[in-house]
């Protein structure tokens, strides 16, 4: 079972080394057992004595300190993982650089790398002139209004309408689909 000193040493190693440190294989379960044991001691001692004993105070302080240390270890490791993910998204990374990650940390790393790569791809496409390419691919749809519709603004801020029942209009696909879905218009088949 893990001890308070071992937990403190893990914090110190993580804090003063740039790379992620190797943790015991069952680190989280050992920490959970340690915390449960300390809570059990505090509860037992409180039931056995009416006044707070030195043992209870010391154990409670150790429990509080352990919780603070665990939070700090997790925060440091998450910061390191985000830095690793950033580097991996920019330059690629070898497997050995991620060998000290716990399973849940590997998930965080992989998701972050994937999102960063997607973001970089979007930026690159915009910089290469492929801005709003998805809007260029949108086609207009010919629709017939089933009821009177007051003027409204398009997604670009352009005023459209007002439209009367029976009007046939060629509108951007996004707007036409909304009107069709609401039953305010019907699609006109082009010949």
Word description of this protein:
- With 191 residues, the chain is mainly α.
- The chain folds into two domains: 4-127, Methane Monooxygenase Hydroxylase, Chain G, domain 1 (Up-down Bundle), CATH 1.20.58; 138-187, Ribosomal Protein L9, domain 1, CATH 3.40.5.50.
- 59% of the residues lie in helices and 9% in strands.
- The chain has helices at 4-16, 27-48, 54-91, 103-127, 133-137, 173-181, and strands at residues 140-145, 152-153, 159-160, 168-172, 185-187.
- The protein has a three-stranded antiparallel beta sheet. It has a two-stranded antiparallel ribbon with strand order 2-3.
- A hairpin with a 5-residue loop joins strand 2 (152-153) and strand 3.
- Helix 1 (4-16) packs parallel to helix 3 (54-91), helix 2 (27-48) packs antiparallel against helix 3 and helix 3 (54-91) packs parallel to helix 4 (103-127).
- The longest helix is centred in the middle third of the chain and has 38 residues, at 54-91.
- The N and C termini lie far apart (78 Å).
- The mean pLDDT is 86.
């Amino acid at each position: 079972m893990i001890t308070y000193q071992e937990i403190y040493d893990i914090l110190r190693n993580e804090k003063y080394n740039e790379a992620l440190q190797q943790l015991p294989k069952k680190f989280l379960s050992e920490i959970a057992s340690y915390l449960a044991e300390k809570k059990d001691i505090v509860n037992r001692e409180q039931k056995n004595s009416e006044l707070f004993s030195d043992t209870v105070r010391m154990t409670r302080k150790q429990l509080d300190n352990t919780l603070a240390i665990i939070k700090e270890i997790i925060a440091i490791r998450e910061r390191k993982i985000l830095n690793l993910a950033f580097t991996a998204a920019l330059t690629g990374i070898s497997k050995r650089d991620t060998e000290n990650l716990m399973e849940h940390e590997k998930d965080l790393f992989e998701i972050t790398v994937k999102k960063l790569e997607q973001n970089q791809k979007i930026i690159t496409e915009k910089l290469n002139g492929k801005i709003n390419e998805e809007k260029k691919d949108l086609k207009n749809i010919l629709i017939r209004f089933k009821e009177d519709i007051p003027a409204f603004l398009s997604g670009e801020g352009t005023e459209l309408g007002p439209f009367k029942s029976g009007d046939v209009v060629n509108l951007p696909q996004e707007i036409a689909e909304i009107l069709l879905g609401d039953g305010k218009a019907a699609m006109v088949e082009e010949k």
